[in-house]
Write a structure and sequence with these properties.
alpha/beta, Protein-Tyrosine Phosphatase, Chain A, single chain, 11 helices, 5 strands
């Protein structure tokens, strides 16, 4: 796995090198997850071009306003919008405007609701995500949202599961975000206890989405097949494209 950290996108990382249950590894330099690409520096761009080639395929889970305020800086990238509008900050802002005291625990519950919403309201976006993954594997591909932790974290977990990566590795990848974003300043617009929760990922967040999949669809494998379009043959194709 290539280890690096970009100045303008500290959560940009290669999924290459993870081994699945049969010992096959994700090909290095093909699949990346990231925070947004609107602040890439010239040296970041040169590094990505020299290390992995171009043009890039970009799958962007951000909402409309997020994309317009920080457009992708990768030259000649093929950007595909898979819009999942952010809701958590607006919900909390509305509660605070109503003089409601939002505790740490309630913020965690709201984040869990956000992850449940990925399954119950945004499954079509994750189905599109896999359609793009299956379409072509020649160019390097990066998928991202704003911080690269929630919408992207769920996508990465689904992808790694589809590639038969062990669950402990999936959790490790998910929690790596906290180390990558530890130096990111907290939002000054929210009370510090709330900002601390929104700044990081917790196992309780992703677990809420997994539990929702189980409740609504029986299993993660059934969800992949019946809701995300990953039939047995499509899953084999995905593995052929991205595993050594």
């Amino acid at each position: 796995m290539t280890e690096f950290q970009l100045e303008g996108a500290p959560n940009f990382r290669d999924l290459g090198g993870y081994a699945n249950r049969r010992g096959q590894r994700i090909r290095a330099g093909k699949l990346f997850r990231s925070d947004h690409l609107g602040q890439l520096t010239p040296s970041d761009i040169r590094f990505l071009h020299d290390s992995f080639g171009a043009p890039w395929r970009v799958l962007d889970f951000r909402g409309v306003q997020e994309r317009s305020t920080a457009p992708c800086q990768l030259p000649n990238a093929q950007v595909h919008a898979l819009s999942i509008e952010p809701t958590i900050v607006q919900k909390i802002t509305d509660l605070l405007a109503q003089a409601h005291t939002v505790s740490h625990e309630e913020t965690v519950r709201l984040m869990q609701d956000t992850y449940r919403g990925f399954v119950r309201h945004n499954t079509h976006r994750y189905a599109e995500f896999f359609q793009h993954l299956l379409a072509d594997a020649d160019a390097p591909l990066v998928f991202h949202c704003t911080a690269g932790k929630d919408r992207t974290g769920f996508a990465a977990a689904l992808l790694l599961h589809a590639l038969d990566i062990p669950s402990e590795v999936i959790w490790q990848d998910y929690l790596t975000t906290n180390a990558r974003l530890k130096n990111r300043p907290l939002s000054a617009l929210l009370p510090e206890p709330i900002a601390h929760v929104l700044h990081a990922v917790q196992t309780a967040f992703l677990q809420a989405s997994f539990e929702t999949v189980e409740q609504d669809h029986g299993s993660l494998t059934a969800y992949l097949e019946n809701q995300l379009g990953l039939s047995a043959s499509a899953r084999q194709q995905l593995q052929r494209l991205y595993l050594d």
